[in-house]
Amino acid sequence: MENQKLKKEIGFFTALTIVMGTVIGSGVFFKPEAVYSATGTAGLGLLAWILGGVITICGGLTAAELSAAIPQTGGMMMYLQKTYGKLTAYLLGWAQTVIYFPANIAALSIIFATQVANLFGTGDHIIVPVAIAAAVFIMLMNFIGAKVAGSFQAVTTICKLIPLILIIIFGLFHQGDVAFRLFPISVEDHPFLTSLGSGLVATMFAYDGWIHVGNIAGEMKNPKKDLPKAIVFGLTGVMLVYLLINIAYLFVMPAAALAATATPASDVANIIFGSIGGKLITVGILISVFGTINGYTMTGIRIPYAMALDNQLPFSNWFKKLGAKSSVPYNGGIVVLLISIIMIFTGKFNQLTDMLIFVIWIFYTLTFIAVFILRKREPELARPYKVPLYPVIPLIAICGGAFIVLNTLFTQPMNAGIGLVLTAIGLPIYLYKKNKGHFSE
């Protein structure tokens, strides 16, 4: 959609709610296990949440400059294509198709099934079949049409706020025998830098989604003034919510206990509200997770379709087919679903999320660097919004991104290696398509 066709109707408050609603998802309910396992202490765990928020704010402010200057369908793919060429944009689309969206769907389906097992007190043997059933059900619902999936998304977005608010309010005033301590920040068996890095990688899954906030720039009444405010206040608000709920968790359960459970939010809810109240909160969390799976499914099945329109995939004509009644790219959905199911069988929640964060942050960091390249190469490019405090904010985003990527590479070489191999598989496909003249640089 061209910029001049977009109606400029979005003001500051609407933009603020879009920012917060896009980012707050399911990670805040489940990532405490990984964060406190990595950090070993409450203080270092909370520091990881704060640093994750700071990097996210800087990343959002930086990427928004490109969103405002290049308001084209495709978002980040278009920024990378304009800066680095077709290959980089293609590899992003490929990575999103075979890693980012399937891994998100798989990881969230696993955690949904884990919550179901926890709710009904069954064994872990039901996790894989329930996870597959959840992923299949959501995909079939999306095949009915975007209207049905969109309505479901609106309902679940409201539902996810209820458990958050209740746990924060009642958790902070909980009277128990747990002593909340910020110090010591680190302990001997958790080296400060590597522990903080692994904890930071874990938090970034909860903060993911910020890249989309700049996409509304073309529809804002005053993007130069309101977009940076919406990003700063919105993402700061998200960070505060995450800090508050983690402090509430730590008032109820010590960091070591949070590190030992795959369902921290439900366990905390059971302590605060009792068995029945805890189960009601768990149901709210389940609805939230179901909605998050739906959000990634809605977006994910359209990536292979968009790539097929440019003949970038094997069997592109097959991927381009739409449902006769629903106009949904169901073939792309089938492939994304099959990859997700394989990942459900082979991966665990934290392994899958760490892998997808590693891969996507390679491209996020390239996006931050693109701001410097385009400012030098195309100074005349119209920029309705410019990142404030340039070059400090983009440099913080780049350093943060590089730290996330390098830390994962050294501390989780298996996850990083799988992500790199799956991404690299797209390279020979690109070269084959290019040599056949299917698309050009």
Automatic annotation (TrEMBL):
The keyword Transmembrane applies. Gene3D superfamilies: Amino acid/polyamine transporter I. The chain crosses the membrane at residues 12-30, 42-66, 87-114, 126-145, 152-172, 192-210, 230-251, 271-293, 328-349, 355-375, 387-410, 416-432. It is a multi-pass membrane protein. Its main location: membrane. One of its GO terms (molecular function) is L-amino acid transmembrane transporter activity. One of its GO terms (cellular component) is membrane. InterPro entries: AA/rel_permease1 (IPR002293), AminoAcid_Transporter (IPR050598). Keywords: Membrane, Transmembrane, Transmembrane helix. It is found in: Membrane. PANTHER family: AMINO ACID TRANSPORTER (PTHR11785), SOBREMESA, ISOFORM B (PTHR11785:SF512). This is Amino acid permease-associated protein. The lineage of its organism: Bacteria, Bacillati, Bacillota, Bacilli, Bacillales.
